[in-house]
């Protein structure tokens, strides 16, 4: 699997206040979107998330988001090392994702930018 980068997940109480801090620290402008009831701002290598505790409690279990060239390759490699695919692969607005539990118990989201039409 080709790992292209990693994003860290940070749950915050006040997304607007946090965005200014992380924009200053990273020098990057936030890109905002919704994931269900959770407001998300991607700033540099950070995903800032704010919303209902019921949804955040699930998202907190995922250590990081790992960008890969192809989610299908990730599935093959993850399965080969004994990881459990918890969810996915599923289409998203920008590609596909999956959630996997590594043999050590760590949970990661893997994402690609491969569009549904290419899959």
TrEMBL record:
PROSITE patterns: VOC. It comes from the Bacteria. Gene3D superfamilies: 2,3-Dihydroxybiphenyl 1,2-Dioxygenase, domain 1. Residues 1-113 form the VOC domain. Signal peptide: none annotated. InterPro entries: Glyas_Bleomycin-R_OHBP_Dase, VOC_core. CDD domains: VOC. This is VOC family protein. It comes from Streptomyces mooreae. The lineage of its organism: Bacteria, Bacillati, Actinomycetota, Actinomycetes, Kitasatosporales.
């Amino acid at each position: 699997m080709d790992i292209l980068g990693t994003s860290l997940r940070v749950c915050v109480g006040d997304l607007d206040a946090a965005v200014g801090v992380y924009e200053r620290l990273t020098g990057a402008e936030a890109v905002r979107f919704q994931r269900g009831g959770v407001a998300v701002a991607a700033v540099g290598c950070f995903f800032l998330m704010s919303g209902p505790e019921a949804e955040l409690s699930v998202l907190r279990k995922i250590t990081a988001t790992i960008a890969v060239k192809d989610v299908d390759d990730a599935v093959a490699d993850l399965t080969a090392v004994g990881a459990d695919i918890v969810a996915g692969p599923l289409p998203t607005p920008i590609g596909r994702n999956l959630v996997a539990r590594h043999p050590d118990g760590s949970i990661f989201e893997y994402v690609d930018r491969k569009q549904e039409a290419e899959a």
